[in-house]
Structures are given as structure tokens and as C-alpha cells.
Amino acid sequence: MEFNHRPVMLNEAVASLDIKPSGIYIDATAGGGGHSFEIARRLGEAEGKAPAGTFTPGRLICLDRDPDAVKAAGERLKAFENVTIININYSQIDEAAARAGIDKADGVLMDLGVSSFQLDETQRGFSYHSDAPLDMRMDKQGRSAADIVNGCDESEIADILYQYADEKYSRRIAAAIVSARQKARIETTRQLSDIVASAVPAAYRKSRHPARKTFQAIRMAVNEELYHLKAGLERAFELLKSGGRLSVITFHSIEDRVVKQYFASLCQGCTCPKDFPVCVCGNTPKGKLLYKKPLVPSKEEIESNNRSRSAKLRTIIKL
Ligand SMILES: C[S@@+](CC[C@H](N)C(=O)[O-])C[C@H]1O[C@@H](n2cnc3c(N)ncnc32)[C@H](O)[C@@H]1O
What we know:
By secondary structure, the chain is α/β, with parallel strands linked by helices. Helix content is 45%, strand content 13%.
């Protein structure tokens, strides 16, 4: 299957990294290599302009936890000599850097969530639009979505739906899942989607697909997305040189909140109570935001790529 993913906020994201000709960049979520291609192209452009022998070429390290994405990115980027592609979780970005032989980076990009390719490849079980085994594992290992909906108890399922997707009918949906699985194991995306549709009020079924939030939440639980995101952000920031940039594109409020709060904590200076005459905590800001408010896609991009509609780009610069 062809890797058909349109990179979201491509120009804004690549510009936010402020690509330097000899810089070292990490695309922590390579996917089909859309953003990576543009970063590699810009690095190559600078090399092409330099007089021979006067220039240290930049490097791009691409990571993805999905072996299929790694293959697709490899194919897309094969013309570039200065690109290294590694099949690894970005929460191990420090290990990836060590494997690639680098100890600091000028920029890291994280474009969160799943790609259109993963959604469109029916057998992966990410989409409620088609009938497929209930899988959703990005790295094709560990607990599947079927293991979670058939194995967790009702309150755990309700918590997953509420915490990972703000699903307001979390309890009703969890109860419906438990009642359905007492009759037969839930094995397919269609079964899950039908159970959710039958559990929510009719009005809820009219606005958006009723299973949208349930699928998002279960996918996040299967892939332990928030755990890896928090670890990935910390390790990526750690890896940056002074002046280096970390840019993150989020697609929903739960993951955006994690990024926003982490960036805010890095920007915070003294935390002493206001009435202290002198600072005793000694805290100084470790980063500064490139934009006060996150960038969002243009109207044109949203019109031409519906997947971009909820995207937010946040960038922090290491001090
Ligand atoms: C939105 S897509 C990226 C698309 C890419 N920027 C492009 O232009 O083609 C997100 C990618 O991140 C990968 N991914 C998600 N979580 C990850 C993690 N914790 N570690 C590494 N890769 C991850 C997914 O497998 C998916 O391929």
C-alpha cells in the first residue's frame, strides 16, 4: 500500500526548527517522511551552495516506532545520504541519538498521533470506518485493543475513555462493552463501533461519529501514548544544544495539554512566594517559547486537508 500522508503544517513546522546548514535534526515521528523530506532537502540545499571542502554537512535522524513507517520513510528518503532511520520509540530518543553517534541536536520535531497511512491500512484496526481486527498497535507488539476491551474491568475502561478522550458517556460505553463481551469476545472494529453507537443518545450520534473518542482513547491506552509523550519530551529537550528547538504538533486537547504544561514548566523562573524579599529557590528558566500562542493551520490547509483541522504547533527554544 502506498504511504499517503500529507504532512500537517509542513512549512510552519520546518520553519520553526530554523534549519542551519550544518545542523543535526531529529524527526522523532518520521511516518511517511513528509516533514523529514523537507528538512533533508533544506540541509542538502545549503550543502549544494557551499564551495567544495568548506562545509560540514548537516544530519537528519528519523525515528518511528512503527516498522511499516520506517520502511516507507526509508523509501521516501533514499536519495539523501545524510539521513539515518531508526525503528524506535521516541521515549528512547537518547538511545537513538547514541546509536546514530550524536550527543546533541539542533532541533527535534514531534508530529503526534497516527498517520493517514496507519488509519487507511484497514488491517491495523485504527479506524472505525472499516471492519478489521481490533488491533491498534503502532509497533505491532504488546497488548492489542481487543486485549484491553475484553480484559480490563468496567471502571478501568470508563477511566480510559474519560482520561484519554474526555468521553462524556464513558460509563455508559464501558457498561455496554462489558455487557457485550459477556455474550461474545469483541474482536473487530465494527463490533466495538456498533457497541458504542448503541450505548450513546441518538443526538450524540448525529454530530460526529459516536465511536471517535472511544477509538482515540483505546488507541492511546494500547500504545501508552501519554507515558511515551512525557518521557519523549523530557529526553528530547535534554538532547538539545543551547539555542536548539523542540517543535511539537498535537491533534487533540489531551496531548496538547501535556506539551503546553511541560513547556510552561521549562519557561518558569523563580517559584518563591511573591512576598519573599529575595529568591531562595534558585530556579531559572530553561527555555523560552518561540510563539506565545500555538500556531494553527491556515484556512486553506484545513480546507484541503481535513486531518489538519485540530492541529497545534508549539515550539520551545532551549536557553
Ligand atoms: C502523524 S504521523 C507523522 C507523519 C510524518 N510527520 C509525515 O510527514 O509523514 C505520526 C507517526 O508517529 C509515529 N509515532 C507515534 N508515537 C510514537 C512514539 N512514541 N515513538 C515513535 N514514533 C511514534 C507513528 O507510528 C506515526 O508514524
